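Bit of a strange request maybe. I'm writing a small parser for structure token strings and I need a real example to test against, not something I typed by hand. Could someone generate the tokens for this chain?
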Amino acid sequence: MARALKCETCNRIVENVGETAVKVRCSWCVLSVVGIPKEKSVTPPSGRPAGWHFMAEFVDKDGKVFHKGKEQPKLFGTLKPTKVKTPKKKAKRRSKEEILIAREVEKKAALKKAVEKQKDFLNHKFGG
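Reply from user aminoacidic:
Good idea to test on real output. This should exercise your parser:
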């Protein structure tokens, strides 16, 4: 059976309290003590590639030089910007239906080619 107790600060009734509870504080009072949680701030993109700070040496477009993520102001503008290789996208896995359709298209093309070859043979046109 669910038990209910009054909040120790504002006297609101709090339901579904455990059997061994002696005092209770309502969610409103907890929020007033802790404060309303703030949303996480989204950091704007830096324009650098992912993982640039793990590279042994990275040179930004503006000429800033970084060694393992730490800027080296003495080397500013001495090196060419780092060329970043974009990773190849993985091929999307085809469904059984897509595989069957592709196989059918290939078979039709092969059949058409064989028919053309036979027509050429009958018309005395040899590959030459």
